[in-house]
Amino acid sequence: MHIFMTGATGYIGSAVLDALIRAGHQISALVRRPGQAARLAARGVTPVMGDLEAPHTYLPVIAGQDAVVHTALEGSAKRAEKEALALDAVLPALAAGSGPRAFVYTSGVWVLGDTSTATDETMPVNPIAFSAWRVPHEARVLAAGGNGLRTIVIRPGIVYGGGRGIITDLLKEALNGLVRVMGAAENRWASVYDRDLADLYARGLSSPGASGVFHATDESDERVIDIVQAMANHVVMRPDIRHVPIEEARQKLGGYADALALDQCVRSPRARALGWTPTLRSISGNVPRLFEELRASGV
Ligand SMILES: NC(=O)c1ccc[n+]([C@@H]2O[C@H](COP(=O)([O-])OP(=O)(O)OC[C@H]3O[C@@H](n4cnc5c(N)ncnc54)[C@H](OP(=O)(O)O)[C@@H]3O)[C@@H](O)[C@H]2O)c1
Question: Which of 190, 199, 237, 272 could pair with 157 in a Cys bridge, judged by C-beta atoms 3.0 to 4.6 Å apart?
């Protein structure tokens, strides 16, 4: 397939890019810096210099693609606005095409809110304020499907593996002697290994009937405290674990603190029905491997 990607230099996007290259697809990718363009070009990817908020930089490339995979997200407070601009441009361009086409949108399990009981893709969303902007974006993507265009919304859990992301930050804190968690940290995080997540994108694209919402979680339902204890047990100089009150965390992190405090138990039956089987089933059970991946990443 000819696939245009956004976010190919990001944490999720780089894992997805690896999987799509391995599967033999022809990739073009939106990039913001010449150095990134050169690195991607060296891997056979066609770089497209531009920015999410400037659709004229990438719209000409959309025509003729079999699929667009969107994993980019602007880090600033304008993230929702910039993503809306991109959706405004890309969805009609893809809808106007012919032949089978696909659009894959990256959302996240945080749109589900607290899920004390197991929650699958059929359950309604219940986002906290931090993630509320995503819900209309998901709805727009799903509504754009039809006439040969398949639209797919992937909701990853918290991603682990490699040298980036929330779990990697905890591994680094453990190495540095002080791990911070919120409150008692008895809340459960829904999570997924980066390479398993990337495999789901590849499967979704290559499964002709796949459309709609897919959760991507390893279904381990691990408590945050168990994750950090497993990390602490593995480090030679055992780190302190500091329990930060949620109010103090909110002052520092804003609404992001509420996302990290969510208690989530998320199932992925629609993803599994595509034949997707996560190879890693927990963070705490793979701590030595995750420390090794962090070391190998060189960060
Ligand atoms: N990581 C997780 O645990 C996780 C879990 C669930 C859902 N998600 C969601 O998955 C998506 C990707 O997350 P991530 O962790 O991979 O993020 P990330 O590592 O920060 O990557 C963001 C990507 O977006 C690109 N980007 C940012 N602003 C852009 C702009 N204005 N124009 C073009 N490209 C732009 C970045 O390019 P540069 O290299 O130029 O900065 C980078 O490639 C997000 O929507 C996130 O909320 C993440």
Answer: 190
